[in-house]
Amino acid sequence: MSIHDETRLKRLSFRAWRRGFREADLILGPFVDAHARDLSPEGLDALEDLLAYPDQDLYAWIVEREPPPPEVDAEALAALRRFRDQVHQLPGAVRGG
Q1: Closest Cα to residue 31, out of 6, 56, 50?
Q2: What is the helix (H) or strand (E) element at residue 48, kind and residue range?
Q3: In sequence order, what are the residues at sequence separation of 6 or more whose Cβ sits closer than 8 angstroms to the Cβ of residue 64?
Q4: Euclidean distance between CA atoms 72 and 49, whole angstroms
Q5: Is 45:12 a contact under the CB 8 Å cutoff?
Q6: pLDDT for the residue numbered 21
Q7: pTM of this prediction?
């Protein structure tokens, strides 16, 4: 992995953990820490695009309180939802949604 990739992953982790909305932090931060290294460049692009949305909107889409707009990457959002469900099934795990 190149220095540019490492920098991108660190920046992505920072953005995921420091949203300013704790409930979103507790889903996005652990997701990025657990899965970002395994994503393709296109997957990282989609995740970065999601993180550009306002916290309240993004969280509402993740917990399925509101439908996302059509331009939101369906696979990236689905991966976040699967992760949310996995976190809720683990006893003693950090719960974010």
Answers
A1: 50
A2: helix 41-51
A3: 81
A4: 8
A5: no
A6: 84
A7: 0.81
What's the DSSP call for residue 96?
-
Of 50, 31, 54, the closest CA to residue 42 belongs to 50
* Distance in angstroms (rounded) separating the CA atoms of residues 17 and 30: 8
Measure Cα distances from 65 to 16, 35, 89, 92 in Å: 20, 24, 20, 24
Q: How many CB atoms lie within 10 A of CB 17?
A: 15
* pLDDT greater than 90 at residue 2: no
Q: What is the pLDDT of residues 21-74, one digit of tens each?
A: 888 888 999 999 999 999 999 999 999 999 999 999 999 999 999 999 999 989
